């Protein structure tokens, strides 16, 4: 599996060759720096660790400063490991090398995007789970329009079952969206245009996997 780290710029739309208006997301993908190379002999598996985004040295733990200095680069904000990256790019990714989007993806590829979804805070069951509410005000109900209704039985089991859909924190989860098509690559600006939406707000980190 090969991939790259990027930053979500925002959404837009373009017209396809057959005249359809296609919603798409613009992602600044890389350039990333190879901060560690793992192999079967020393680590038990093949992998490449990539770093992306600048980070102030005063806000970086000392062990990480040494880790980045070993790769000959400045501290990075986001570090992600891609397993079996070296199988496809044997000899092309060495410690301290720069990996760009145009070297990993080509137009027409289908990729997976991983990000952290927008946090919505504490939400009720209608917004969080799509409940319809208890109903109208016809039968003596005037204040239960968005309430969850019954959540369990009485004397048995005398408790609420685990996993019951109730109000609570919504969003802020790790989300993976699969099979997004690479529509356009702007190699000189390290930009990717992919079909569909990508989880997370603007300027959030996105992991792209091939």
From TrEMBL:
<dbReference type="GO" id="GO:0003735">
    <property type="term" value="F:structural constituent of ribosome"/>
</dbReference>
<keyword id="KW-0699">rRNA-binding</keyword>
<comment type="subunit">
    <text>Part of the 50S ribosomal subunit. Forms a cluster with proteins L14 and L19.</text>
</comment>
<dbReference type="GO" id="GO:0019843">
    <property type="term" value="F:rRNA binding"/>
</dbReference>
<dbReference type="GO" id="GO:0006412">
    <property type="term" value="P:translation"/>
</dbReference>
<comment type="similarity">
    <text>Belongs to the universal ribosomal protein uL3 family.</text>
</comment>
<dbReference type="InterPro" id="IPR009000">
    <property type="entry name" value="Transl_B-barrel_sf"/>
</dbReference>
<dbReference type="GO" id="GO:0022625">
    <property type="term" value="C:cytosolic large ribosomal subunit"/>
</dbReference>
<dbReference type="InterPro" id="IPR000597">
    <property type="entry name" value="Ribosomal_uL3"/>
</dbReference>
<comment type="function">
    <text>One of the primary rRNA binding proteins, it binds directly near the 3'-end of the 23S rRNA, where it nucleates assembly of the 50S subunit.</text>
</comment>
<keyword id="KW-0689">Ribosomal protein</keyword>
<keyword id="KW-0687">Ribonucleoprotein</keyword>
<dbReference type="InterPro" id="IPR019926">
    <property type="entry name" value="Ribosomal_uL3_CS"/>
</dbReference>
<dbReference type="InterPro" id="IPR019927">
    <property type="entry name" value="Ribosomal_uL3_bac/org-type"/>
</dbReference>
<dbReference type="Pfam" id="PF00297">
    <property type="entry name" value="Ribosomal_L3"/>
</dbReference>
<keyword id="KW-0694">RNA-binding</keyword>
<protein>
    <recommendedName>
        <fullName>Large ribosomal subunit protein uL3</fullName>
    </recommendedName>
</protein>
